[in-house]
Request: fold
Amino acid sequence: MRRDKRSRNGPFLENRRFSAHVRDLIRDGRAEEARAKCEKQARRGPALRCPPLRRRVHLQRRLHSS
Reply:
């Protein structure tokens, strides 16, 4: 039962770990590295399922908010 739940939540948990890593990079003053990792992940495809337009708007706000 627990393994089944983990497999369903896998993309969500992977995204949470990635986000925490990016926040750590930014906190450590490595914003350019964090930006590069985010752009690479964005090119790789959606970790979480969402409509393409919503995803595009979200990425534009995230990647170009500085």
